[in-house]
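Worked example

This section walks through a single chain of length 252. The input is the sequence exactly as stored; nothing has been trimmed or padded.
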Amino acid sequence: MIHPLNKYFDKIFLISIKRNSSRLLNFSSKYPTIEFEIFPGVDGKELFPSIEFIKDFPIDFFKTNNLSFDRCKVWNKGQLGCAMSNYLVQQEIVKRKLNKVLILEDDALLLENMLDYFQSAILELPEYWDLFYLGFNPLSKWSENSFTRFLLKLKHFIRPTITEGLSSGNLCKRYFPSSFSTKLNKPGLYGGTHAYALTYEGALKILDIDTPLKFGFDTTLMYANYNMLLKSISLKKPLFVPNPIFDTSLVN
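Given that input, the structure is written out below as tokens.
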């Protein structure tokens, strides 16, 4: 029996690193009917193990891997590994001319009771899209509360700055998600890259935005969504969440 995710997506990549083999085993055993291809991620800890800080990496490393030294030098190794892993996924999608690709991190937890919701939601998808969020973390935990949402809008209207490297301007209309259809939103500023999908055109656009690589990947998507550089859509309710039994590799 074909899993609903495989029915819609042409390819599913599961990003995993050798050190986290238990996560891969957990995902495989938990969802045996999902067909996916393992995408070997970059383990930040394995990059120059004798060097603690990225700013001390050989300068040729940044040139060879299309990395911005000025940007990446302040990250920790986990952040660099995550950003590079997603960057390589975009390159692979373009290289293989893949379309409708679901990208999962190995700690993604599928909310199986939401599969019917997903199958209804994809009927509402526009014909052309670049980025489709199936899992996401709103930038603010207060975004769904009407009073605190008003305060955040006021704050970002008065001082319209998201984070270094992103455009400034009036964020009131783009900071929060807005309704696209019954089960879909136009995304706001979302963190997290545990479950998202790209088309070939979407991957091309992201590579154009972030080459050389200069943002953490979720920040790249925030930048693109804020500046309306991508045709982005999200589920109103996530299909995937980070598995709470695993620690993030961003810091470990």
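What to look for: The CA atoms of residues 41 and 88 lie 8 Å apart.
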